[in-house]
Structures are given as C-alpha cells and as structure tokens.
Amino acid sequence: MFAQFIYRIGLYNILQASAFTFAILLGIYNAPKCGISRARALNGSVWILISALTGTRLLFILLYPERFPTVMSWFDFKNAGQVFFGGLLATIFVAIFYTRYHRMEMRNVVDVVAPSLGLGHFLGRLGCFAGGCCYGAVTNLPWGVVFSNRGEYVARHPTQLYEAGFLFLLFLWSLRSLNQRASLEKTAADGTKEVPEGSMPVPGRIGGIYLLAYSCFRFMVEFVRADDRGGFFTPLHLSPSQVIALGTAAVAIAWLRYCHFRKDLPRKSPTESD
Question: What residues are paired with 145 via a beta bridge?
Fold first, then answer.
C-alpha cells in the first residue's frame, strides 16, 4: 500500500514537499540560536514559502514563454516547472522587507536560513533526480545514469546528484558553523569562560559563504547540464542560471565585506516575545 501511495503521488512531488517542510522546521528550531523567537521565525517562514514558490514559477515562465501562451496557463500546474534562482531572488527581496519591517538584524536571519536552505535544496535535487529532470550531458563515465523516462537509453551525467552532494556538504558545514557561533556567543555572554580575541564569529558570514560557494558550484555544473534551460547569452554562451550565479556571487562577496566592516553592530536581534 505504501508503494502504491508513492507511485500515485510521485516521488518527485513527495521530495519537493519534504524539502519545504524540513527546511521550515529546521529554521524554526535554529532561530533562537541567533536571538530570533520561534513565533517570529514561523511567521517569516510563511512569507518565505510563498515568495519561494512564486519566484521559482515566475522565472520558469519567463525562461519558457512558449509553454505559456495565455495568462491562465501560468496556473496550469500540470505544466510543472521550477527554477531555483527565481525562488532565491524572490526570497531575498521578501527577507529584506520582512527584517526591516520587524527591525530584525539581517545578518542573524541569513545565518539561520543557510542550513535550512541547504537541507531543503538537497532534498529538492533528490526530487529532480527521481523525476529525471535537470539531467546532464551524455557521458561514458562509469557513474553515468540512464533516465529511461526520457525515452532514451544513453548514460548521462547525474548532475542532480552532483549538486545534491555539494548541497549536503554545505548543509553540514553551515549547521556546524551556526552551532559554533551560538556556543561562542553564549560563552561570551555568560562570562564563565574567556573567549580568545578574534575567535568570535562574524554575524552574517555563514550565509555569505554559503551563497558564494553555491553560486560558484552552480556556475561550473551548468557546463555539463544538457536539459533545456532557456535562452543562452552570447557570445559567452552562458545559460541564464550561470549569469544569475555570477550576480549572486558578486552579491555574496559584497555581503561578506559588509559583515566584516560592520562588526560593531549588535550580534543578536532583540528576542521578540512569543
């Protein structure tokens, strides 16, 4: 019966739903580590979820306008499709507005979001592998995968798994870094143990490094992707995702410099009442 349920719903849909669910739960759990109440994190997660779903869909429509001849076809979810960078960009804009409106420290928010983003995106890429989308170029390498749902029987680069593996490592690193930051800040606040000068973490650095690392990896893995990813930018022949990755990498570098030179700002947001 369980196998029938998986078959009817689809493993792709189950993993995509799990990605959002576990990402939100992890974010709510980690929020107090940076002085953010779980109630505020839950409220923010709702807005992030809406913006992520909307952004991924809108960018897909912009990249593939021929698939959506009418406005009503935008809402035909049988014509499934998502673009991660669309959700990321929409989420960034909503997060900026949300943190400013509630007078929250943005650097704390991005550090809390980083592990959640890594876990959710990791599960999402596993869903892509299960669904056979986002596949790579034909290869003779021994780990090539045949995606029989495409009606062909040639081995291709499992680019979904390349990305999933990297995202899982980013998730582990960001979660460990967040826990270390919370532990050091708690030790410094309690005064029970002297914290060596220069060992205190820089707020916002976790999120900045995460965005920079992913942008660079995504730029490289695009060279072995073979699925239709929209128009290509000439004369460099870069895909839209590669162009966006260059932009997000530049944003990440600027953000890291900002965090480094604004160490004087409060490390924690005032904890809101639940």
Answer: 156
